[in-house]
Amino acid sequence: MCDYSLRAFASRPAVVGETLTTYEFNPSAKGFASEGKENVAVCLLPGTEVAFDAEITSAHRGFIMAVVSREDKKHGFATAVFAKINEDNACMHHDALQFPDGTTVLVNDLTPGQRATVLQLPAERTPEKKPEKPAEEPAWQEETAPEPRERLEII
């Protein structure tokens, strides 16, 4: 549920209605945390809908963040759906937010300190149930027994 960069931290699943904060667990691991419990990553499932208190911002600072400071990018939306991207590349971050226009931003690039409310979790898939057939009598009871075959003698 959480990106590989958060596996070293305690985590739990998100709950509908709770308020989360974007949090920097360490310089290379950002995610969501519950207010007052920043030591526990809150993991979202793909399809989870979130609403932020303000327009969502991000800043990709990379490894030279101490040298180059970029201004936060505003994305023009306060709502998004959690998604997984880059899953074919194990060395990249996968947790992302998808905006109503289809664009995405990595959760790891979100500006820390933004507040978001979990609006809806994705629908759970339930295993398909095969319709139960009424109990049938064994076929041998419905049909007549076959005629005995003629016995052949082996010489």
In brief, what are we looking at here?
This protein is mainly β and about 160 residues long.
Please provide a written account of the structure.
With 155 residues, the chain is mostly beta strands. The chain is 3% helix and 34% strand. The protein has one domain (4-122). The chain has one helix at 139-142; strands at 10-13, 19-26, 29-34, 37-43, 49-52, 57-58, 73-74, 79-84, 95-98, 104-106, 115-120. The chain has a 9-stranded mixed β-sheet with strand order 1-4-3-2-11-5-8-9-10, with no helix packed on it. It has a two-stranded antiparallel ribbon with strand order 6-7.
- DSSP strand count: 11
Estimated radius of gyration: 28 Å
How would you describe the shape? elongated
Distance separating the two termini: 74 Å
Number of helices: 1
Oligomeric assembly: single chain
**Strand line-up in the sheet with most strands:** 1-4-3-2-11-5-8-9-10
In terms of per-residue confidence, which ranges show pLDDT below 50 for 5 or more consecutive residues?
Answer: none
Helix % is under 10%
Which percent range describes the beta-strand content?
25-35%
Helix and strand layout, with pairings?
Layout: E1 10-13, E2 19-26, E3 29-34, E4 37-43, E5 49-52, E6 57-58, E7 73-74, E8 79-84, E9 95-98, E10 104-106, E11 115-120, H1 139-142
Parallel strand pairs: 1-4
Antiparallel strand pairs: 2-3, 2-11, 3-4, 5-8, 5-11, 6-7, 8-9, 9-10
Which descriptors would you attach to this protein?
mainly beta; 11 strands; two-stranded antiparallel ribbon; 155 residues; nine-stranded mixed sheet; 3% helix
